[in-house]
Design brief:
Blueprint (H helix, E strand, L loop, with lengths): L1 H20 L4 E12 L3 E12 L2 H21 L7 E13 L8 E15 L5 H10 L4 E8 L4 H26 L3 E10 L6 E4 L2 E2 L6 E2 L2 E14 L2
Antiparallel strand pairs: 1-10, 2-4, 2-5, 3-4, 6-10, 7-10, 8-9
Helix pairs in contact: 2-3
């Protein structure tokens, strides 16, 4: 009876070992690629900051100035759907902290920011120049984008897959094994926007700007079987 128990126990331990021995051998790599493209659109963050003795005065002055800026942008060819309010704020301006006095409200500051899509990059400098002349006194930056990024992004995906194949083949050769079929493919999502590559100034614009190029990136995790 004891002999049977020992044999049964030995078989129980052997099963996991056999399963482990039969586990599939694989190689997992990450393929990466970056494809540069010339942008055809810019997004400008601009706005108006005003002050007033009261909250109402600050906001009224701000609204009037921003209305003029919007009209100038529209006359410069910016479509209404390419104008979007990004931030609107109204705050008291407290003073007296640095003099050891009881803080008090000196006046009020209103700010209204717009995201402006400029689809004609040749007109970007002129749009900025006209906006500043019409009251824009706050500029938070410019980003360059592609109107249709999908073709460039797909090219980056193809290149990332090719990079994964090259890496897996290299590792297989170095390990002295043969690369088998693909077991899984998983795209690594990137939460960042297009990356700037290089800049080239446009000297003819009233406000000098540089669109340069942007790079769209892709990464993919690929697992291959080891054939032998």
């Amino acid at each position: 009876m004891r002999v049977f128990q020992v044999m049964a126990l030995s078989a129980a331990f052997a099963l996991p070992m056999a399963a482990s021995a039969l586990a599939e051998a694989t190689i997992t790599v990450t393929g990466e690629a970056s494809v540069a493209a010339t942008p055809d659109m810019a997004v400008v963050s601009l706005g108006v900051t005003t002050e007033g003795a009261s909250a109402a005065e600050a906001m009224a002055a701000n609204s009037k100035a921003l209305a003029g800026v919007i009209e100038r942008l529209k006359s410069a060819g910016i479509a209404e759907h390419d104008l979007q309010t990004a931030n609107l704020s109204l705050n008291p301006n407290w003073v007296g902290y640095d003099q050891g006095q009881t803080p008090s409200i000196s006046n009020y500051v209103a700010m209204n920011m717009l995201n402006v899509r400029v689809r004609d990059l040749a007109a970007l400098g002129g749009v900025l120049d006209a906006s500043i002349a019409d009251g824009v006194n706050t500029l938070n930056g410019i980003t360059f984008e592609l109107t249709a990024p999908r073709p460039v992004q797909d090219e980056a995906r193809k290149s990332a897959m090719a990079d994964a194949t090259i890496k897996a083949t290299l590792y297989a050769e170095a390990a002295g094994v043969t690369l088998g079929k693909i077991v899984s493919i998983a795209e690594q999502l990137s939460y960042g926007g297009p990356m700037p590559v290089f800049m080239g100034a446009k000297d003819t614009a009233p406000v000098p700007v540089a669109s340069g190029q942007i790079a769209l990136q892709a990464a993919v995790v690929v697992t291959y079987q080891i054939a032998d």
